Amino acid sequence: MKDKKLKILLAAPRGFCAGVDRAIEIVKKSIDKYGAPVYVRHEIVHNKYVVESLKKIGAIFVEELSEVKDKSRPVIFSAHGVPKVVPAEAENLKMDYIDATCPLVSKVHREAENLNKNGFHVLLIGHKNHPEVVGTMGQIPSGSIDLIENIDDVKKFENGDNKKLAFVTQTTLSVDDTKDIIDALKEKFKEIKEPKKEDICYATTNRQAAVKKIAKQCDMFFVIGSRNSSNSVRLVEVAIKSGCAEAILIHSESCIPLDKITKCKTIGISSGASAPEILVENFIKKLKKEFKVNIEEVEIIKEDITFKIPGRLN
Question: CA–CA separation, 26 vs 101, rounded Å?
């Protein structure tokens, strides 16, 4: 099989976005400043490799603040954001907390709050139970925001009290699917207010555009990322919708389907915004053991966005 040639189209940009970089850096700098352990509420980003590597240097991951054994230690809120009740609970428990919410998620939080203050009923386009959605819905009082997951939800939603309507979106959705839902909302509710600048983040948009550009040329497409990573799962869907016959998510427990890759001339590779580049490199290394590999990186845009770390950690 080593004689078999395999072309790899490597999507760029891929992997870590600025929000993920910042969140991981916040955990590392917190450990440097306060010593180990520091607690992290929910996975800091949705990637097992990242979580395990942070555990090794002193991060303890919990789902709720009640699980924190030593309340004198700092707790970090994940990049996905938290409902308002969480910082309030931390204050009640006299816990020191550091918020690693991605600034682009915080932007959606502020939008929802401002809309609520101005008398709008908010519709959030997103996926039920995703931590980002839970966080955004928890910014404003229950009953003033509804979740819209798909076009069926648009059809079912009735504005019985004739309230002013506005929508916001989760930052890691499929650009195309979201457009269809937004079109349906605008068609049904002509006066609905939309965000001045779309909420789907630059990293999600760029990674999906890069996959779209190469998917048609690939016999198979591989996305390196975790199963609970929304943006990684969306990349798999985008590859299929863009004309690739088969797309697979490669996560921590995945076996590489070499028997299928043997039948391919060209494969595509990308990675979700919470997947470190070393996982892409390891995947390619394994392929190089089996095939004569020719790699072509296809870059659609250079990303140079960075987000500041909270001043107290510098």
Answer: 10
